[in-house]
């Protein structure tokens, strides 16, 4: 491996202090031109390379952004990260990525790690277990700007990037109603998440608008992965409480439900229709293809990172600013009523 000299090596060779070497290389006024020339020549001779981190710390800049995401099981967050990375790279920053594994405790450890690494700002999508509100606020109060995306804190005044979960859940439920399905259920996501609350609210309001009964139609799956949808669907089948259609919190939950439906010898959408949310890549590959809400994942990342960079560049960003991006519903075979 090629060896690079240190300031100490140059100082020893010239019989001067490391502080003088540092000032000479920084072209400081308090070092003579002759000494600067000697130091520069010796640095070149010894193959000296400045330490980027040390230079940044001297300037109180690390040029590093911290990111906390809940998981990597789905394609959602990797796609968002691609958008974030584009903005961060263009701005000449580095990205330090951590994963909370859907744990509130691990999320706090991640935040402490990022803080100790002197990141200049933090992008975060919170865990399903809830919000580390006090720690988010502490970071902001210490001068580290925070931007939330997708899963956001409801109690901390900081910029947020979301989609209109309520409106899209309303449309997804109405889609099932307009297709003639009568007994419609909702597989709810984690109750601590704002996205779960908004999607459930959209389901409830759409049902009420069309004078549909809501009580006992909401199933608390409490999860974001396929096994929760699988178990919830199995329980309904075992109780002989089969709905005509289900609006699911997300695609993995819907795909878990689809697996249980098939294992029971039932068919989708003939026996139970399904609508997901988040448009995973597998949605178009399963049989039947899954109706789902397609979120602008790359744009979410770009927008969140841009809001953070604006703050770092001293642009005025209103703390309470919330950016709602446009999503769309892709209607496929899983929600089409062939009996209609």
Q: Which helices and strands appear, and what pairs or packs with what?
A:
Blueprint: H1 7-14, H2 18-25, H3 33-45, H4 52-58, E1 64-69, H5 76-90, E2 94-99, H6 104-116, E3 121-124, H7 133-141, E4 146-149, E5 160-163, H8 165-178, E6 184-188, H9 194-209, E7 218-220, H10 226-238, E8 245-248, H11 251-263, E9 273-275, E10 292-294, H12 297-312, E11 322-325, E12 328-330
Parallel strand pairs: 1-2, 1-3, 3-4, 4-5, 5-11, 6-7, 6-8, 8-9
Antiparallel strand pairs: 10-12
Helix pairs in contact: 1-2, 1-3, 5-12, 8-9, 10-11
Any overview of this molecule?
- With 340 residues, this protein is α/β, with parallel strands linked by helices.
- It has three domains: 44 residues, lambda repressor-like DNA-binding domains (434 Repressor (Amino-terminal Domain), Orthogonal Bundle), CATH 1.10.260.40; 130 residues, 3-Layer(aba) Sandwich (Rossmann fold); 138 residues, Rossmann fold (3-Layer(aba) Sandwich), CATH 3.40.50.2300.
- 43% of the residues lie in helices and 14% in strands.
- The chain contains twelve helices and twelve strands.
- It has a six-stranded parallel beta sheet with strand order 2-1-3-4-5-11, with helices on both faces.
- Strand 6, helix 9 and strand 7 form a beta-alpha-beta unit.
- Helix 1 packs across helix 2, helix 1 crosses helix 3 and helix 10 packs across helix 11.
- The radius of gyration is 27 Å and the shape is elongated.
- The chain starts with 6 loop residues before the first helix and ends in a 10-residue tail after the last strand.
- The model has no long low-confidence stretch (mean pLDDT 90).
């Amino acid at each position: 491996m090629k060896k690079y000299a240190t300031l100490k090596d140059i100082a020893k060779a010239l019989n001067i202090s490391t502080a003088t070497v540092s000032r000479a290389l920084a072209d400081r006024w308090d070092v003579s031109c002759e000494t600067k020339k000697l130091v520069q020549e010796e640095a070149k001779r010894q193959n000296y390379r400045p330490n980027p981190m040390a230079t940044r710390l001297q300037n109180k800049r690390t040029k590093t952004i911290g990111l906390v995401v809940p998981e990597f099981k789905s394609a959602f967050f990797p796609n968002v990260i691609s958008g974030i990375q584009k903005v961060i790279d263009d701005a000449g920053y580095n990205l330090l990525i951590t994963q909370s594994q859907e744990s509130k405790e691990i999320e706090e450890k991640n935040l402490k790690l990022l803080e100790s690494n002197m990141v200049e700002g933090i992008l975060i999508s919170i865990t399903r277990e809830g919000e580390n509100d006090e720690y988010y606020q502490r970071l902001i109060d210490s001068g580290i700007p925070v931007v939330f995306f997708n899963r956001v804190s409801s109690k901390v005044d900081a910029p947020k990037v979301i989609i209109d979960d309520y409106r899209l859940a309303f449309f997804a439920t109405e889609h099932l109603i307009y297709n003639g399905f009568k007994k419609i259920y909702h597989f709810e996501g984690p109750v601590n998440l704002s996205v779960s609350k908004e999607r459930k609210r959209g389901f409830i309001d759409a049902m009420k608008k069309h004078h549909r009964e809501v009580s006992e139609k909401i199933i608390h799956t409490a999860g974001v992965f396929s096994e929760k949808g699988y178990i919830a669907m199995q329980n309904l089948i075992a109780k002989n409480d089969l709905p005509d259609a289900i609006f699911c919190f997300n695609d993995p939950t819907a795909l878990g439900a689809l697996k249980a439906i098939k294992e029971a010898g039932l068919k989708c959408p003939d026996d139970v229709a399904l609508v997901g949310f988040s448009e995973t890549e597998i949605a178009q590959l399963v049989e039947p293809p899954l109706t789902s809400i397609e979120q602008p994942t790359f744009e979410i990342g770009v927008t969140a990172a841009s809001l953070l960079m604006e703050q770092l560049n001293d642009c005025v960003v209103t703390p309470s600013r919330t950016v709602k991006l446009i999503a769309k519903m892709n209607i496929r075979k899983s929600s089409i009523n062939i009996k209609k």
